[in-house]
Amino acid sequence: GECGESEKVPGKKYNCNYTGPSLPLDPKGYDLLTVHGGASRLFLSLFFVLTCPACFFNLMNLFCELTCSPHQSRFMNATKFNATKINSTNVLEVEYYIGKNFSNAMYNACMDVQAPSSNVKALALLCGKDAKDCNATNWIQYMFNINNGQTPFSIIPIFSDVPVSGHTPMNNKTYACTEGLEDGSGPCSCQDCAKACGPKPVPPPLPPPWTILGIDAMTLIMWISYAAFLFIFIGAVLGAWFACINTRFENALRVLFSSWGSFCVRRPTLVILGSLILVAASSGGLFFMRITTDPVELWSSPSSQARQEKDYFDSHFGPFFRTAQLIITTPLTDTFIYSPYFGGSDVPFGAILDKDILHQVLDLQLSIEGLIATYEGQSVTLKDICLAPLAPFNNNCTILSVLNYFQNSHAVLDHVVGDDFYVYADYHSHFLYCVSAPASLNDTTMLHDPCLGTYGGPIFPWLALGGYDETNYNNATALVITFPLNNYLNDSVRLGKALAWEQEFIKFMKNFNNPNLTVAFSAERSIEDEIDRESNSDVGTIVISYAIMFIYISLALGHINSCRRVMVDSKISLGIAGILIVLSSVSSSLGLFSYFGVPLTLIVIEVIPFLVLAVGVDNIFIIVQTYQRDERMPQEELHQQIGRILGDVAPSMFLSSFSETVAFFLGALSNMPAVRTFSLFAGLAVFIDFLLQISCFVSLLGLDAQRQEGNRLDIFCCAKLPDGQEEKKDSFLFQFFRKIFAPFLLKEWVRPIIVSILDCYLSRIGHLFIYIYIYIYFVLEIGLDQKLSMPDDSYVLEYFKNLSMYLHTGAPVYFVVEDGHNYSSPEGQNAVCGGVGCNNDSLVQQVYGASLISDYTTVAFTPSSWLDDYFDWVKPQSSCCRYLNASGDFCNASVVNPSCVHCRPMTPSGKQRPEGDDFMRFLPMFLSDNPNVKCGKGGHAAYATAVDLRPKGAGVGATYFMTYHTILKESPDYIEALKMARILADNITQTMGHKVFAYSIFYVFYEQYLTIARDTAVNLGASLAAIFLVSAVLLGFELWSAALVSLTIAMILVNMLGVMWLWSISLNAISLVNLVMCCGISVEFCSHIVRAFSVSVKPSRAERAEEALAHMGSSVFSGITLTKFGGILILALSKSQIFQVFYFRMFLAIVLLGAAHGLVFLPVLLSYIGHPTANILTFSEDFGPPLPQPLHGSASSHYTRPEIPL
């Protein structure tokens, strides 16, 4: 019977000493024995092994023999006593003789049992140390140790299989975990019994190297491609080319644009005013402009799988919680040794675990807890927004910190038990105990302090410590403190409070200074804040970049013939007007899409002006410089001259602009919002820019020409110089291209050298088109290093660095079972659960199997299973599930009330799983029950949000089962984790016959990388196809010339991919946008040269190529290369790493590669395999008599212009 109160464990009672014969148990004591007696009341162990019947039976056997065996005298011996006031004797200590066979068999049956709610093995919670360090002996010793807070008196186990001191050890029958019990219970599940599993899953072997005839396939393909293109090239040079196709379309375009140009010069007021009205109307949409900075909106399409799964998760379980996190290290390097008083090996401790350092860290933590922010005049504290899983019974915030082992108290941290000579226990021993048993309510040291955090849950060491090796937590070099905060889906007020507190947290941490602590920190809002700050800080750099380009354009457009006429011949006002036209096209595009509610992104704002400036300025230079080099014919008026010039150059402009527009609009087919939005805005902006240039700019050019002919000063047009005759001279750049560069490049001995280099690149093109997917996957790094998104001086960079250096666990991953699964039926339960009787391929079992090969699957732990814990919680063997007999209201296990009865009877049927109505009757009680000393299985803390109950108890809706990923450091790790989780979820879906998906907070950002190689190939392929088709039509159906344009652009793209690899530029949405833009700008470099070659009437290909390069090369070089070069160099000074990597490096490569291919490779290529004849018909054949040619001796008579009379 029970006697006095235990002195060691308050609330527990000693047993009375009795040495007589065994007595039958009063029936009233059955319930006390089975539920409240020496089993579950004394030992919390039983609650954690209910999922394995064999383990539970053996463990219960151990306790029952101890408590009420009629043969106790054979294997028990009371050794210490204490008299009570009521003439009875308390038993203070007993010896329990246990057979080694029994203890080992019991341990073997229990060693693999999982604790579903904590993702660890049950022995990790029951043995007082990590499960891998637990064995049969120290496990039983721990359970019987009076210092564990559950045993009222000391029980000393003595292990032997032979009689000792006249006692016969208890060696009852045991069951292996692979055996069923006599009561019909089946063997333990694979999750709880490794021996019940089949062979351990092994990762599939790595694919063997791809070889052809024993040679590396990629090498062989490269050489075959090289040889094939070399053969084709030689054949092309030696062979005859097909005849010219009808060129009427080309001449029709000339007539159309000539007439339109003449009209614009004759009616400048009408054209300019009309253009202004249209631009103003289009730009009016900017009042409705929305800029998207939400990373989810930027990188994930609403129709994407990850986005839909995120929305589903948020709507059923609430959004993933927010976090504020510290990673704390110390510059101190001293380590110290802890020597346990009661024996054992010395334990080294890192400097970060020095008690003085811990006190300083606790001061910091408490200061953060005390922060007060202000939101709309209201004070906001951490308690207002923090995650408190046991509220309203326990309102303490969840703080994942090693200081929570000490209940966040300086006094507990300083707690010491000892005398004047020795320290028996202090924070060292408590720390070592708690990292092994974080859910313990009482350590086994003489401190008797709990390890459980103040919020009512465990602090797992892998979440609170960093920089340790294996499980040697004492070697930690960093402390990790995490403050989980509530997140809100559609509550702007509460979300605003969370944001306000985070802002106060960031402000406090920026000002925090302690010479002994180095703190890296971040809040949920940090990344978005830093991106905004980065954008604002780079405004100056961007402005300077564009200012340099603007100044160059304004000055370079003018063709100064003499110092006397500087202000007359300059075209600063025309250059400014051209720039304003470019900016107007951008604002019109933004405005038109804003009318339709299409949001802008930072990529659109940062990249499109650069793109349109490249395209637009090139066209401006071509128009103006062609006019400057042209000589007006006799009897030709100004409007006719400019109309004729526009007829000459506008088809080329139309070719490039329309090709780019179509290519960009095809890029809008991408699933990535950033790429799609950029493509839409860019395509429209380029086309509007073309329309304004052939209308408004032509009218302005006519007005400027009239000003220049009237000797009026630029800008100050009211002032006028005296009349004088000045000889027109060609610009230095034009003369350089005409007299030096073009003749040299196309010399007979230079061309073969260029061709040999060119052919090497041509072999790459075959490689690109056939194997681009493989090339991207195996050569380019895929992803976006999150450190690149931060400014150079951002505090978040240090946090990212420490995150990858110190953290030892990955992000949580949830396997979500969508609404509609039947949990009330045995079939539905078996398809999900992981305990006895569950399917070997159930959800829990499959995730468990994946965790066994975590290096391959990236799944680190067994999932927490609310279903398995619910089955244990509702069993009549536990004291968890009770209700008031009169009202049916739930009775918590800690409630002492005789009216509380068990939910299910202690009968064979009552021991079975609940089904049908019974299942739903008790489930809400389980989800509202807080875990406590008498019932550790309450589901409120672990599963309150894991189960979405339908209204009015109509059933279970969506649920999730949580585990963790392994450590993920770089983008490829995150991409692989997403890929493997989806494969696992798909397998579970197939076996269950019901939709299951994997969800983690980072999936929505990394999903794009699963298909980005394919998206890149599709986008670039579609752009090239569009350029080919448009070029073919607008070049008068010259398929070969269109193919050469597309081929050269493809070469530029291949080289861009090579530059990305050499310059460590990863493939992601930003770089894909730049590659799409590269297609557009490359058209400018190529199409004008090809069209000039196409209309040239020189007799040979080499002469036509030379004339095309001389005539158009200077305009392309000055309009794109020089314009962009100065502005790009300024971007190198940006504080933004994204600007430095993805804009400076890629823009520079685009311009240099475009210039090299368009102005070097393409002319040489045309000189060999260009179309053999000019694509031109004279007006005498089709449209009437030709106009007179320019006068001899004119400034333009030194080169032969094609006879294109109008």
Automatic annotation (TrEMBL):
Q: Where is the SSD domain?
A: 538-703
Chief localisation class? membrane
Q: Does the keyword Transport apply?
A: yes
Catalysis: reaction(s)? cholesterol(in) = cholesterol(out)
Q: Name one GO cellular component term.
A: endomembrane system
Q: Which UniProt keywords apply?
A: Cholesterol metabolism, Disulfide bond, Glycoprotein, Lipid metabolism, Lipid transport, Membrane, Signal, Steroid metabolism, Sterol metabolism, Transmembrane, Transmembrane helix, Transport
Give the record's membrane topology: Multi-pass membrane protein
Q: Which residues cross the membrane?
A: 223-249, 270-289, 539-560, 572-596, 602-624, 678-703, 761-779, 1017-1037, 1043-1063, 1070-1090, 1110-1134, 1146-1169
Looking up PROSITE patterns in the UniProt record yields: SSD
One of the entry's Gene Ontology molecular-function terms is: cholesterol binding
For this protein, the record's InterPro entries field holds: HMGCR/SNAP/NPC1-like_SSD (IPR053958), NPC1-like (IPR004765), NPC1_MLD (IPR053956), NPC1_N (IPR032190), SSD (IPR000731)
What SUPFAM superfamilies would the database entry show? Multidrug efflux transporter AcrB transmembrane domain
**In which compartments does the protein localize?**
Endomembrane system
Family that this chain belongs to: Belongs to the patched family.
Identification of the protein by name? Niemann-Pick disease, type C1
